[in-house]
What does this fold into?
Amino acid sequence: MTATYRLQLHAGFTFADARARVPYLASLGVTHLYLSPILQAVAGSQHGYDVIDHTRVSDELGGEQGLLDLAGTAREHGMGLVVDVVPNHMAFVAPEHVNAPLWQVLRDGRDAATAHWFDIDWKAGGGRLGLPILGGTLQEALDAGEITLGEHDGAPVVRYYEHVLPVALGTEGDDVAEVLSRQHYTLAHWRDSDAMLNYRRFFDVTELIAVRVELPDVFDATHRLLVDLNHRDVIEGFRIDHPDGLADPEGYLQRLREVTRPGTGIWVEKILEGEETLPTSWACDGTTGYDAMRVLTAALVDPHALPTLDETWTEAGGGLDLEHAVERAKRTVVDELLGPEVQRLTRRAREALPDLDADRLEDAVVELLVASEVYRAYIRPDQRLTPLALERLRHAFDLAVDARPDLRVELEHLLDLAKAEDPADVWAVDFAVRLQQTWGPVMAKGIEDTTFYRWHRLVALNEVGGDPAVVEHADPAVLHDWAARQQRDWPRGMTTLSTHDTKRSEDVRARLLAVAEDTASWRACSRAFATAADAAGVDRPTAHLLWQTLVGVGPVSRERLHGYLTKAMREAKRHTGWLAVNEEYEARVQAFADSAVADGDLHEAVASAVRENLPGIRAAVLGQKLLQLLLPGTPDTYQGTEVVDLSLVDPDNRRPVDYEDREARLARLAQEAPASLDDEKLLVTSRALRVRRELSDVFGEKGTYAPLAASTEHALGVVRGDRVVGVVTRLPRRLADAGGWADHTLTLPDGTWRDELTGRVLGGGEVACAEAFERFPVALLVAR
It folds into this structure.
C-alpha cells in the first residue's frame, strides 16, 4: 500500500460507478480505494455514517455482489480496498423499524436481547427510553390527534407522523394515551431533551444512538461482516470513525487487530491537539492525517503577515485572545447543546458523592468539561492510571479551579472519580468513561463547529485538527520534526490535505495562504468589506469571513455561497442558530454577499487580490500537494482534488466529480505539456504517486526522511532515502520582493537526478535554485 484515494459513495455514486473509475485511478498512481462506509445506512444517506444494519452491505450502493465486483476489478489493476468503519453509533430515525436491534429495545425494553447494545441510562428514565420527538407537549399531540394506533407487519404500533413505534406485548388497547403509558419509551417535546434524553448520542445528534462495542458480543455482531470480508481478501484496511467516542478505544483497536488478517491497515480518525501525539500503545497504523495537514500549513504560512492579520482582524471587530474565544464557545456548546450529557455526568457524580450539593456538582461538571484541551485523557478503568492520563486530568482540573476557585472541593472529588482507580466502584468508572466520551463533543463542537466560525483572523488555519495560532510560530522545522516522528512511530500513518470533513478544500486554503502573504491586498480587502458592511448593516466579523471565502473559493454560484454562509452563521451561534433561526439577519448577510459577488468595488477588491497573487497561488497549490505526497506515511487524495478543487465545507465538498475531464487531462499529459494550473496539479499528483508506487521501499517502514539543505528559507525540500527529492517554493511573494532566487542554491545528494515533472537532468551537489525552479515552482527529482 503506497497511496489511497477517498471515494464518497451514495445512491448517485455506487460500487459500479467506482468500478468504472478504477483504470483511471490506477493510472493516477494510487494503490487503494478508500471507501466511505459501505454497510446498510438510512435510505438516501449521502455519507453512510447513519448505519441501520451491520449484517448487510448497502443495497443502494450495489449490495455485497457490487462490492465484490469492485474489489475484483481493483485487484485486476493492482489495487485494493480500504473502508470506513462506524463503531460508535447507529441511526435512530423514523420509521424506527428500519433499525432491527433498536426496534427490539423499543418493544421489549430492558429485557430485549439487544438492550445491552445501546448506551442507555435506564435508571434516569425510570426504566423507560426517553424520546423527545414531539413538536409540542404529549398532551397537545394527543389532543390534536397527531398520535395514532395502527399496525406494521401485522403487529400493533404507535404512529406519530413519520415515526413508527412498537407496542409491547400485552399492552394493546384502543386508547392512545393509555397504551403509551404502558410502553418502554416515553414521548416528549423535543425542547425537553435535557431532561428526557437518556441515551448517549454522537455529539449532539439525537438521530444517532451510541453502540457499546466494548462488549464482546456487540463487537462481534457489528463487525462480523466486515471481518469476514477482510478474511476473504475483499477489504485490506479500515478507517475507524471517531474512536474517542468509544468507551475503550485502545481495547477496541486491540480486538480489531486480533480478528483481522495480518497486515490489515487500521487508521483512526483521531484529532490531536497541539503537541499531543497518538499513543503508541494503540494497535493501529496511525491517524487519518489531520496532524499532517496542520504541520504542512505551519511550514507554508508566512509568519511575517501576523501584524497585518492582527490589525485587520481587530479593525473588523475581532478579539485576538483565541483561548478566551475557545472558552466562551465551549461554554455555549455545553450550555446549549450538551445538556443531556451534563445531566448524565451529574447523576453519576451525585450517586457517587451523595453528601455534596447537587447544583454545585453540576456546576463543577460543566467546568471540567469546558476545561478540556484534548479529545481524550486515555483513562482505562481496568488498568493502572498512566502518567499521561493523570497529567491530562490534572491540567483540566487546574483550569477548572482557576475559572471557579469556589468549586475546588467539588472539583477535587470529581478528579478522584475521573481517575477510576477502583474498578469495582461502578459510579466512578461510569463517570470516568462518560467524561472522556463527552470531552470529544465539547472539543469538536466548541472549537471546530463554533470558534472556527467566529474567529476569522486567517480562516485558512481554521481547520479540523488545525490551529489558528500556528502562524505565530510558523516554521518548516515544525514539519520536519513531525515527519521524523512519523517515520519513526507511524510510518504507515495517513497524510491528507482534504477530507469529507475539512472546512475548506486544500486549494481554497492555498489561495488564502498566498494572498495573506500580500499584506497590501489583505488590508485593501478587509477595509473595503468593513466599510461596506457598516453601510449594509452587517457585522464586520461576518464580512471578514465573507471576503476571505470569496478569495478562497473563486467564482461561485449564488446557491453554493448562500448554502455555505447559512451554515457558517448558524454554527457561529451569535446572531442566528439551528434551533433559533434569525431569518432577517441571515437575509441581510445573503444580500450583502450577493452585492459583493456582483460587479463593483467589493468584487474588484477580491479579484485584484487574486490577480496580484497568481504566482503565489500556483506555488502554494503545487507545493503543499507535492510535500504531502512525499511525507512519511500513506498519502490520501480526496475525490477530485488531483486537480484544483475549490470546495467549502460539506455538503459543498460532496459535489459530483467530473472524472471524464480528469481522465482526458491525464491522457493529454502523457503527450503534452500542462496548459493550466489544473493540469499542473494533476501532473504533480500523478508523477508523485507513481514514484511512490515504483519506489515503495524508499517510502516504506525502513525508509528515511531528511530536510533538504538550501541557502534560503524560500526553498523547502525533503529527501527520501537519497533517491527521491521534493522541493517547493516557500513564500514566493517575499522572495520576489527580495529580488528572486539570485545566487541561492539547494544541495542535492551525490548522483544524477531527473525531474519527473519536466524530464530535465540535474547533477548532484549545489544546484542553483533558479535552475531547479526554471519551469515550475516545485521539483520532483529521482536519482537515475
